């Protein structure tokens, strides 16, 4: 059975709590990524996505100089390098997320994306199921 360590990206761009939202956005643009893990002393403390920037910063009229800590998602779902790809797909589907930070002994060691799972040992059906569940709107959320 394939483990996350076999497919994860190990060279992960990160930011720190000292960075501001503008700096994160520039890194996202330069590296063409939609999520950046936030670390403090090598420990994963949050994630910031392009969506977080739009919804929690721009839409709320916060300045680009806002602290990352005010915008990032601090509820983080993670996996370990030993997690199987099937379990990772199940977690992504359940949590409706497309990316999972990989943490070992509290430290960020990589990241795995739904696309990584789709092109590896998962069957097409497993990848489709995960994507389908992630893409389904949450019935408990209301959109105004």
Automatic annotation (TrEMBL):
UniProt-listed InterPro entries: CBS_dom, CBS_dom_sf, Diverse_CBS-Domain
Domain of life according to the entry: Bacteria
Transferase listed as a keyword: no
Cited SUPFAM superfamilies: CBS-domain pair
Annotated keywords: CBS domain
Domain annotation CBS: ranges: 8-65, 72-131
Gene3D superfamilies: CBS-domain (3.10.580.10)
Matches recorded under PANTHER family: CBS DOMAIN-CONTAINING PROTEIN, CBS DOMAIN-CONTAINING PROTEIN CBSX3, MITOCHONDRIAL
Record-given protein name: CBS domain-containing protein
Species for this entry: Lederbergia citrea
């Amino acid at each position: 059975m394939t483990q996350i360590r076999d497919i994860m990206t190990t060279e992960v761009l990160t930011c720190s709590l000292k960075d501001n939202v503008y700096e994160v956005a520039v890194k996202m643009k330069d590296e063409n990524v939609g999520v950046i893990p936030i670390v403090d002393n090598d420990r994963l403390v949050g994630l910031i996505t392009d969506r977080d920037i739009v919804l929690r910063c721009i839409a709320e009229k916060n300045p680009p100089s806002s602290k990352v800590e005010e915008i990032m998602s601090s509820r983080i779902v993670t996996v370990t390098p030993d997690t199987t790809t099937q379990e990772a797909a199940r977690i992504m589907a359940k949590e409706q997320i497309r990316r999972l930070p990989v943490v070992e002994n509290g430290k960020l060691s990589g990241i795995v994306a739904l696309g990584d799972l789709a092109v590896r040992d998962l069957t097409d059906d497993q990848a489709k199921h995960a994507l389908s569940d992630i893409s389904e709107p949450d019935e408990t959320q209301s959109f105004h």
